[in-house]
Amino acid sequence: ASVTRRSSSSRPADPAVDTVEPMSVSLSHCYVAVDVPDAALEFYRDALGLELRSDVSSEGFRWVTLSPPDQPELEVVLVEPHAGRVEQDGDALLSLLKRGSLNGLIFRTDDLDTAFENVRASGAEVIQEPKAHPWGVTDCAFRDPSGTMIRLTQA
Residue 20: exposed, middle, or buried by beta-carbon count in 10 A (0-12, 13-18, 19+)? Predict the structure, then answer.
């Protein structure tokens, strides 16, 4: 069986492109750049409640992986900007990080008010207190210790 993809463009359909065999795809890892791994570990573990999976140092850099307790198959990887990158790219990423220009992650919770208070108590910079939006989402936003914006949304 095949799945036919519909396109809103006016270009002619290409049968080789428009037919895709069914498959399973899931997110396993996502990366968040951090400039101080210890502070980031404390924040993601203690304020957000993620569980530590690994803490690895190699070639002068460190990366830490954590998972939400209810999603152990998903690992959030906290990685230093220069790890695995050429110096110029690491410098550019670090510059964006320090300006607070990076979007990070959106976490879903069944108790937004309690989660928000835990994050606030950690000393995180609050960007937006819990707010119900006209499009049906209730969420809040803050910055992790490295300056990356993190959002919490009510499940």
Answer: exposed
